[in-house]
Amino acid sequence: MKGFDEIWSSVARTRGGEAVSPALKNLLFRVHDDATTSPVNLPALKNGLVELLQYLDGDGRTNANCWAADLFFCSDEWEHDWSEQNLPDDFHDVLAKMGEALHDTVTSPDVARNFGCLPEQLLERAERLEA
């Protein structure tokens, strides 16, 4: 099983000359840590997801960041970790959705919107999570 740093290294690639933000790494680490700590602290996980998605909806809305976040959430290694935590379905759904079409946010926003994967759509879902 890969650890956070190994997963991060595999997803934090430059896209079109654009580097992934170091701030994204910290936000993803927080969500990773909150989702894999047993027992899961749902309020902390919700807050981490909201902060991550606020970032991706604001200053962090770059092609490189959205791709890195998407790849991180669809990583088989990490998905296995959080799916074993018996998270409530709504938390599981948000985490899974982040690994679908978030990567299309900047270059094909209509595709991301169609799948409900724009940062603002995911943020709305995360804010409604009952922790």
Walk me through the structure.
The protein is mainly alpha-helical. It has one domain. Helix content is 63%, strand content 0%. The chain has eight helices and no strands. Helix 1 crosses helix 4, helix 2 packs antiparallel against helix 3 and helix 3 (42-57) runs antiparallel to helix 8. The longest helix has 16 residues, at 42-57. It is globular and about 40 Å long. The model has no long low-confidence stretch (mean pLDDT 90).
Show the helix and strand layout.
Layout lengths: L3 H8 L10 H15 L5 H16 L5 H11 L2 H8 L5 H9 L11 H6 L4 H9 L4
Helix pairs in contact: 1-4, 2-3, 3-8
Please give the radius of gyration in angstroms: 13 Å
Content-based structural category? mainly alpha
Number of helices: 8
Major beta sheet summary: none
List low-confidence stretches: none
Strand portion? under 5%
For the termini, the CA-CA separation is 28 Å
Number of strands: 0
Order of helices and strands: HHHHHHHH
Shape: globular
Mean pLDDT: 90
Helix content: 55-70%
